[in-house]
Amino acid sequence: MNRRTVLASVSSVLFAGCLTESSPGGSSTNEPNTLTAGTTQTTQMGETTTHGTTTTRSPNLQIPDENHCPPFGDDEKQVICYENADSETNLLMTPSKAQAELPEDTVSFTLSNETGTTFTTNNYDWDVWKQVDSEWFYIAPRAVPEPAMMLKSGGSHTWTLTIDNTNLEDAIGTTGGTEEVTLAGLGGGIYAFGISGWFQGQNYDASVGVATRFELVGDSLSLTPTNDLTEVNRDGDEKHVRASETDVTYRATRVENPDEEPMRKLPEQVIRITPIRNLLASFEDGVSRVRLDGRNTYLGETPQHIEYEGVTYRIETVEE
Q: What's residue 39's pLDDT?
């Protein structure tokens, strides 16, 4: 399975974005510096090329016996994740500190390459995951540009992540960057920061994931509607709400026995998809269905079933 297939099957419509969607296995599909027949090059940094043929000697990576970070995607054949930042490995993601404090704090992550081989990646395509009940859930980013970037042996790259929950009333937009990154809408718990890539002369379908864990200390994330949402009316068990900008209607319905397996979603995921955030945050006692007039955000052509805090909902766009 290649990365585009992973995006479709794992991210689903809840991670739709205006650029290329990002998901587990986040690395660009570009394949620069792959030598072709007729190319001549000397042996350097672990790569050996003969006339008309390219062969690459893979770095001898120190892979931990147990992976305590996300598995990334099907493209990633190996995952390097050491909880001890002093581990003697030649490809390592290191946090500036193990814990950060909510509601606002900063932590940096440095990727170091000492493999003797250039590491091809995409510094826009970092991943943040959250661990709940021994399961990893992909959080951000939702969309990324796709340039390929090179990290030569002996080099390093640092991302500075600012967690900022000081204003969660507005809709949370997409976020990105290759050095300075700000994320809102993260609750307390265990997270991982990582990226994936492949070594020069190899292909993206033999990618390596590199990650590290960190903890956010603070309150759990509570799902609330955006500050522009107003209630139109309530008719029995159905509630009708409206956002400030409206060009489409959505509906969320509690479902006891869904006809398909629902996808479990965390508050940190739901809060990033404004229509779904406003739908689920509008439920209350006695309400089994919510209609939302809101801004058009593509949620798929067929109803989607998600499980949120133990309840299954069918999310759909209403044809008027």
A: 28
